[in-house]
Amino acid sequence: MLAIRLAPEIEERLEALAARTGRTKTFYAREAILEHIDDLEDLYLAEQRLGEVRQNRSETISLQDVIKSYDLAD
């Protein structure tokens, strides 16, 4: 269980959205959290990968090689 405090203007927006759509505020809060977590996980993975590449601990693959590997050429 998670309890959060929202600024009144955010709470009002959430209530209005829920009222317009017939969904619960909990539904939209959960959806927003899940989407943001996905974005954050992607961001941190990209930052980690970039750090590995910059420290020469990981190799890169050129776009041309990816295209050839997956037979994506026109």
From TrEMBL:
Alphabetical list of Gene3D superfamilies matching this protein: Met repressor-like
Cellular compartment(s): Cytoplasm
Superkingdom of origin organism: Bacteria
GO biological process terms held by the UniProt record: regulation of DNA-templated transcription
Gene Ontology cellular component list: cytoplasm
Record keywords, A-Z: Conjugation, Cytoplasm, DNA-binding, Plasmid
InterPro entries reported for this sequence: Arc_rbn_hlx_hlx, Ribbon_hlx_hlx, TraY
Gene Ontology MF terms: DNA binding
Pfam family membership, one: TraY
Entry's family note: Belongs to the TraY family.
Protein name, as recorded: Relaxosome protein TraY
